[in-house]
Amino acid sequence: MSLIERITKSGDARACYGDMPIESRYTAGIAGERFLRALKEGEIMGVKCPECEFIYLPPRIFCPHCFSHLQEWVEVGNQGAVETYTILNVDLDGNPLQEPKIVALVNIDGTYGGLLHFLGEVELDELYIGLPVEAVFKPKKEREGSILDIKYFRPL
After folding, report:
1. Cα distance from N-terminal residue to C-terminal residue, the chain
2. Higher model confidence: residue 77 or residue 21?
3. Which of 1, 66, 102, 111 could pair with 57 as two cysteines, CB 3.0-4.6 Å apart?
4. Domains of the chain by range and CATH?
């Protein structure tokens, strides 16, 4: 079977075993770079669709609804609400955490999409879907142009 033939039976699929020497570099892209530069300055920026008028966060280059090119950058503020969350009891290596961490999808007010980030200054029994929150930024000298320039989101 050649590489361009379509697989129609699961038995026709092939697997490669062993190490594959692959090197790659991830870039944030045009929209991501501008978004991260704004975070370094303590601002959360989105992009507005000229047709649909949705404001997308995280920003993107094209509207997924109407395919318009997105060029209008707008500051969206730092307040939003918890859309969903999970509680982490182990780290990435499976080791128990001393204290649970909360990761939430936060929808910034007036935007379409959301930011996946940590919650802080909140007790587990106070946590609920729809909880109003605000971003807490690192001190300016500690910011690097990363999503982690936002330390966490805390309840309003």
Report:
1. 59
2. 77
3. 111
4. 29-155 (2.40.50.140)
